[in-house]
Amino acid sequence: MLDGFYVIDKPVGVTSHDIVSRVRRAINQKKVGHTGTLDPFATGVLPVAVGEGTKAIQFLDESEKEYRAVLRLGIATDTQDLTGQVLCERDWKGITPADLEALVPRFTGKLSQLPPMFSALKQGGVPLYKLARQGKEVEREPREVEIFSLTFDWIRLPEAAFTVRCSRGTYVRTLACDIGEALGCGAHLLELRRLKSGLFLEAEAITLEQLQEAQDKAALLLPLDRALDHLKSYELGEEAGRRIANGIAPQAQDLPPGALDELRQDDEVRLYVAGRLAAVARFDKVRGLRLARGFN
Predict the structure, then answer these.
(1) φ, ψ at 5 (rounded to 5°)
(2) Residue 133 structural domain
(3) Considering 39, 81, 178, 254, which one is annotated as catalytic?
(4) pLDDT of residue 5
């Protein structure tokens, strides 16, 4: 049984769910799941958990993502990308590269974003994109997102490429659309590639073909430790390890002196027994550590 994460370089034209199915077949293992959905037209970093890795998804640090995108001015679509129906075409010829650059401060920092109808967000248990395909539009609540950095890599009007670092939940399609509206001409995305999702990087990504052809599929896996590297870790003795195996959380005396003093409310930590990841625990100021998830 394989346990850990594959960083798949998702190709254009397939869904994130398709990738899970293909990984499942490639490694002949049922317990597979992805984190951080990518649109079918998008490419790049898609973390795929296998085996015990599926238990770790809830603890991943996905607070920051990075994308490279190409927008096209003058045309707005219902999906905010090239796969949608054209809603309107407006003149972009009076716009200069300097106009685009001047918008960077306005679209950096905390922003309010209206989630697009063509998204996986659910309303009444139904994904918005399903309603959108039926020609329905429903009210959505704006959400606060954060753009940590936005830079234009090249501008060849009416197209421009930009790289953006942003918080989880940011729609880059909507960002491009909002930039187009700020310029008064509309815009949509031609290309979108994810370069980073939390701790998972483009440099670590492999193609589905590489996974399918690999003799040693375990060698391409990132271990659970790597995926949870942002959490503090503590080594426990054998007795505490036996208690964890029975669902009993460790006590202060099982940890290094002063360990609990380092923790804040709801901090999560990795617990090891004999060098093996045994569990993730959550700290409560009143009750101490409580097991959040055990690993086999």
Answers:
(1) -135, 135
(2) 64-197
(3) 39
(4) 96
Q: DSSP for the chain, please give it.
A: ---EEEEEEEPTT--HHHHHHHHHHHHT-S-EEESS---TT-EEEEEEEETTHHHHGGG---SEEEEEEEEEETEEETTSBTTS-EEEE---TT--HHHHHHTTGGGSEEEEE---SSSS-EETTEEHHHHHHTT-------EEEEEEEEEEEEEETTEEEEEEEEETT--HHHHHHHHHHHHTS-EEEEEEEEEEETTEEGGG-B-HHHHHH-S-GGGGPBPHHHHTTTSEEEEE-HHHHHHHHTTPPPPGGGS-TTTGGG--TT-EEEEEETTEEEEEEEEETTTEEEEEEE--
Same domain, 70 and 193: yes
pLDDT of residue 8: 97
pLDDT of residue 226: 85
CATH of the domain at 122: 3.30.2350.10
Instruction: Indicate if 80 and 29 belong to the same structural domain.
Output: no
pLDDT at 118: 67
Those residues of the chain that have pLDDT short of 70 are 117-120, 124, 127-129, 131-132, 134, 136, 138
Question: What pairs with residue 7 in β-bridges?
Answer: 47
Residues 110 and 50 in one domain: no
pLDDT score for 95: 97
182, 102: one domain: yes
pLDDT in the model for residue 188: 97
- Which residues, other chains included, contact 126 with Cβ-Cβ below 8 Å and sequence gap of 6+? none
Q: Is 225 among the residues known to form the active site?
A: no
For the chain, what is the domain count? 3
Query: Is there a single domain that holds both residue 80 and residue 190?
Result: yes
C-alpha–C-alpha distance, residues 202 and 214, integer Å: 19
Judgement on whether residues 285 and 138 belong to the same structural domain of the protein:
no
From the CA atom positions of the chain, what is the Rg in Å? 22
